[in-house]
Each structure stands twice: as C-alpha cells, then as structure tokens.
Amino acid sequence: MIFEPDIFSNKTPTWNRIDDKDINLFKDLSKQIPKLYVSEIAAVYYSGSFEINSNNYRIDSVDGNSILLKKWPLGTAKNSIEKIQRLINWLYDKSIPVPYSGSFVDKSFVLFFEGVLWSFNLFNNGNYYSGSNNELKSVAKVTGKLARTLFDLPSDLTPELGPLHLSDNDDFIINKMITERNNWVGYFGSKNASLINLHWKYILSTWKSLYEKDLICGPIVPCHFDMHPHNLIAKDGEIAAILDFDSCKKIPLGYSLAFNALKQCRQYLSLNKQITNYKEVRNIYLKNLISEIPLEEVSDFDFLNLSKVEVMRRICLIFRINLIDNNSKWNHVLPIQIAHLFESDKLFKN
Predict the structure, then answer these.
(1) What distance, in Å, lies between the first and last C-alpha atoms of the chain?
(2) I want to staple 311 with a disulfide (CB 3.0 to 4.6 A). Which of 50, 153, 286, 340 is the partner?
C-alpha cells in the first residue's frame, strides 16, 4: 500500500495531437498571440494526463517555439488570472524556474475568445519529477527557494487566503462519517468503503489527535501548496519548471512545506523501490530544503503532523463532496490520500 506507484508515477508527459481539421479555432486564436511566440502553427496537442487540466494545449510553431495555452474554467475571474500570470513573471525575474507568462497582442495576459478566457506561458520541455539523478536534492532546494522568495511578494500580487486546516467544518464531516457508516458503500462504492472501514480507526484517531494539537505551523504567507510530481518539470537532474500557480494561496507555511516534502519524497521512493531507508531520504530532502529557508523555526517544524493535517484536509474534502454534494468524482484518489497517512509515518516519525 505505501510508496506504491500511483497516478503521479508516470514520468513522461502525455500529449495527444489534435487533427488538422480541428485546429481552426487555434489558428484564429493565434492571431491574438504575437509572432514572437507563435509565428505559424505546426501542430496542436491537448494534455492527456489525468492531473493536468484537460483544457491545457501545447502549440508548436514552425520555428521550433512552443507555448502552453490554457482555457480557464467558466466563472474564473479575469483579474485572478491576470494576477497569477503576473506573479509567475515576478518569480521568473527572481530566477525561480517557472514558465514565463506571455501577453497577447493587446498587451494583456488574458484573452476573452469564443466565450471563455485564455492565457499562455512558454512551454518547458522535460519529464515530470521522479527523484532520479540529482532531482531529490534539486526539488528540495527549489521548494525552499520558492517559499523564501514568496515572502517578498509585492502586496498587489498577494493571493487570496487558502483552505482552512483542522476546521470545525471538517470535524463535522468526520462525525457525519460516523453516523453514515452503514451507508458508506452507497457513497464510496464497495472497494473504497472496505478500504475506509479497514483503516477507519487509524483515520479517526489521526483526526482527533491533530484536531486537539497546538501545532507550530509557521506564518501565514503566500505558498504553493501542491508541488506534486506532475507540477514539476525536470531536465538533466534539475527542476526546470514549477507549474500550477492556481495553487499559490496564503496558508501557514508549515502545511505547505510538509505536504510538498511528503509528495516529493514518496515519488522518489515509489520509483526507486530498492531504497528502503526512508529516514535517509527524509534527511537528505530536509537538509536541502532548510538550506534555502532563513526562518529558524522551519528546522523545528513537526513535518509528521503538519503533512498529515493537509492530507486529512483532502480526505475530509472527499468525504464532504460525497456526503453533502453526492459527488463521487474524487473517490479514486481516496486510496492515495489514505496511503499518505502511513507514508508520512514512515518518512517523518522519529
């Protein structure tokens, strides 16, 4: 169950080519993109990866340049997208490996076209982070450097507050799970219901323990709290690009660092099965992470419990959308999140 390959274990990005007869929309849209980025379309691909927004498109130009074009979900505010794109370029100027945000011919970072909003970034070629070669050290340093750099983010680029942790609403959901125990199969399916039932005592005790703890979780600052393997592009043993700045929000620093550490270390271990010295992997990672963070308190963070807090928030979210919204779309990632609780024990428990 623990450190097994999961949906993030595929190291090679999947891109599916769009037939020439279906790229007229992109040809029309490309007229709004400066020739510097797309001189003439050679090919268009859509992302075939589960965890990447399926409305991401790679446009290859005949001159060899490529961009990543994003179609934003309906209801997304234009100013929110604009702020994300500007934040990315601010980080780019600070030498953080991010994909540079391009502007359209009207100098805006956001285009309203065919009833939806679009933005684009330069495309970074490479594979997803796997931990191979020097990637474990590189990802730890980049994660630390990004966190440190975001301390100085200008106020006009400050993101909104992120999700609450250890909330009363999540405590309500945990208790509702208890009252709905006889109906778990209907909500989660027999396989997931059996998995929850098998580990329910541990899940419940973990929640109760965390809910009652007074954890030192660090300052509430802008953080990228979802630096999972497929949000990290690696090349030649180094992290070449950090993706998905939709996940940059103001949250306690400790939750972000600990959860990112869990996801990045477990990826390394899941793809290098011969390595079973989990503590050594943790120590290598934390040494490199902390080397980039000036806050002394980070060295004292309880990565064991801080990572579990974010995992439990995600588990409670899945419980919530089932019990309240009758929505099962994220049930397939529930086994991954439950496994993370045990993986955190193996990595961070002294």
Answers:
(1) 21
(2) 340
Helix (H) or strand (E) holding 307: helix 303-323
Structural contact between residues 128 and 8, judged by C-beta atoms closer than 8 angstroms: yes
Where does residue 11 rank: exposed (0-12), middle (13-18), buried (19+ CB within 10 A)?
Answer: middle
Instruction: Give tens-digit pLDDT for 105-150.
Output: 999 999 999 999 999 999 999 999 999 889 999 999 999 999 999 9
Instruction: Report angle CA 54, 144, 316 to the nearest 5 degrees.
Output: 50
**CA distances for 233 relative to 123, 145, 150, 281, angstroms:** 10, 16, 20, 21
Does the pTM surpass 0.85? The reply is yes
Read off the amino acid at residue 105: V
Q: How far apart are CA 129 and CA 230, in angstroms?
A: 7
Contact of 273 with 131, CB cutoff 8 Å: no
- pLDDT tens digits, residue range 56-97? 999 999 999 999 999 999 999 999 999 999 999 999 999 999
Report d(CA 261, CA 259) in Å as an integer. 5
DSSP single-letter state for residue 141: H
**What is the pLDDT averaged over residues 30-48?**
94
CB burial readout 182-213, b (16+ within 10 A) else e: eebeebbeeebbebbeebeeebeebbeebeee
Closest by CA to 174, choosing from 311, 316, 308, is 316
The contacts of residue 145 (CB under 8 Å, 6+ apart) are 96, 292
Q: Determine contact, residues 17/43, Cβ cutoff 8 Å.
A: yes
Q: Which of 101, 136, 145 is nearest to 234 (CA)?
A: 136
CA atoms of 59 and 61, how far apart (whole Å): 6
Return the bridge partners of 331, or none.
none
* DSSP string for residues in 150-218: HTT--GGGPPPB---SS-HHHHHHHHHHHHTGGGHHHHHHHHHHHHHHHHHHHHHHHHHHHHH------
**How far is 48 from 33, CA to CA, in rounded Å?**
24
